[in-house]
Amino acid sequence: MHLTDEHVERLFGTGHKLTPGKALYQDGFYAAEETLMIVGPRRRMLPEVRVLGPTRPHSQVELALTDAISLGISAPVRHSGDIQGTPGCVLVGPAGTVELEQGVIRAARHVHMGFREADYYGVKNGDLMTLKVTSEGCSVSFDDLLVRADANAKLEVHIDTDEGNACNLDQADSVELKAQGACQCNTGS
Asked: pLDDT tens for residues 21-72?
């Protein structure tokens, strides 16, 4: 989940700042030491959900489909930041609670890349790509990966845990990324 500065203070205490824990692959982003409880509309909960930093202009919770079902939330697939009209939830921290009126989504799959990688694959920011994962007895193609090209980004595909499990990603024999509709694949792992 991503939080605003205001929500960090309401959940963890006045003056609290997120504590960087593990650095994420994209420079400047991290998994914070802080976790929160998420409570859905039927009082079902996820007890320890990691907060990602740095803080954002809007708080947002990104769930895999199975987690959304478990909470009783009908979370739409959206790109990060596109939270208008989405369901909400309750966040519970050590110093307080926040009731999000909206902001719960299933994060749409996407690929981060620098401009050099975008040139290599023949795509630009906003284009769509396909990821093909081949695992023993389980090959899956994921269409509609949104390209997020940025001068500072490093090549990294984001799919959720349900998608990773569906293709047995940890045991993948090969991974191919290509421009959607392209005939040639560029192979990498």
From this structure: 999 999 999 999 999 999 998 789 999 999 999 999 999 999 999 999 999 9
Q: Do 184 and 176 touch, CB atoms closer than 8 A?
A: no
Q: Is 48 exposed, middle or buried (0-12, 13-18, 19+ CB in 10 A)?
A: exposed
In a 3-state reduction of DSSP, which class is residue 12? helix
Distance CA 132, CA 64 (A): 20
User: Quick check: 144 and 78 in contact, CB under 8 A?
Assistant: no
Strands 110-113 and 156-158: antiparallel
Interatomic CA distance for residues 122 and 110, integer angstroms: 16
**Strand order of the sheet with strand 104-107?**
61-62, 104-107, 77-78
Residue carrying the six token digits 């930093």: 53
